[in-house]
Amino acid sequence: MIEAHAEDAPPRNGRLQLSYIIGTYPVLTETFIDREIRHLLDLGVDLEIVSIRRPRTDLSPAQRELSRRVRYLLPVSWPGLVLSQITAAVGRPRTYFGTLSWLLSRRHDGAPRRRTAFHFVTGVYVAHVLRRRRGIHLHAHFVDRAATVALVAARFLDTRYSVTAHAREIYVDAFLLRERIGEAVFAATCTEYNRRYLADLVGPTVARRVLRLYHGLDLQTYLEGPERAPSAERPLVLAVAQLAERKGLRYLIEACRILADRGRSVECEIVGDGPLRDELGRQVRELGLQDRVRLTGPLPYPEVVARYPRAAAFVLPCIVTAEGDRDGIPNVILEAMAAAVPVVSTPVSGIPEVLRDDDTGLVVPEGDATAIADAVERLLDDPALGMRLGAAARSFVSSEFDLTRNVDRLVERFAAVASGPAAHG
User: Fold this and answer.
1) Most buried of 88, 235, 255, 386 (most Cβ within 10 A)?
2) Cα angle 350-351-352, degrees, rounded to a multiple of 5
């Protein structure tokens, strides 16, 4: 056995203690995790953040500040990694070899088992890194490698773990999903659509531990911002997104060509970066839209927020890709709704949970550029419609996506399980 020495024991001062495990953190497109973490810290939670990899992209100033709190595993300390494996294998051989054998014997749906072996080794190393926090609850963001690492680490730290499930790791790279959720004390996910899908996947016993928990927004940022003042001369159509296929941005660009052909003088800004940046830029040039559509690249959060009041419409025509990739509820849709900007989107995944057609926004079919153009034109022709949709959207988001209330619900769940029985192994 690996002994828990007095100096390794966590402080018992009444504060809620948590250790977060994330694959890569921070990430420019995952500000919802930033908001959650900041609120936990504001509540006085003793929070240790472990990220497997360092971020590869530019970070906002606030994220750079958060990154100074993060313990990064890579590049790895090789002496520490070797020591962690030897100590665990010799001190707790049944847990070490039993967990490794169990993980590798699970169905992998074509995914390489060497990846799981690497995540197992990483989990043992995390337990070594967090040995002074033995018994403290672990939480993994994303049911991917982070969840496997948390599963393994929990067994060596004599504690339990929970997970938050988001989108891609549920529908695309979903191997070991049943195990990662089934071993967790609870799984939170950000849409009812996801909750139902996962409940069907894991079966009724585990499904009771799967809960829907919407992301939270710092609503004051939008409620106290400037009043909407869209330009009537050249209305702004705004999109904020990772430039990835599931966002459906090529259909927005096609819609801009249709609007131009109809004689509409519309400016479109697409804020963000991603794998399709070159392809989308080429589409803009091929359609002759250089003076109408601008790919701004990634922008700091305050600059994005400042664009919302100027927008006549926010358009994010999400799709389900051929490999099954899709969003949950894109946080930028919620931001636009909080800013009272009329939103045009599609009935994909969890989006209909917030966007009700002709009530809190306009819903168009997937992959239909003409329908997008029609919806934008409808908003341009009827400013009162945009005002009505924006007001209803803001009211809905205020009632369902308040950051304080939603993170407090997560904290209540953490507090309920943090003092529960340790993991077995």
Assistant:
1) 255
2) 95
Same domain, 113 and 188: yes
- 144-180 pLDDT, tens digit per residue, is 999 999 999 999 999 999 999 998 899 988 899 999 9
CA distance readout (Å), 183 to 237, 243, 255: 45, 34, 46
- 235 and 379 assigned to the same domain: yes
Q: pLDDT by residue (tens digit) across 95-147?
A: 999 999 999 999 999 899 999 999 999 999 999 999 999 999 999 999 999 99
- Domain count for the chain: 2
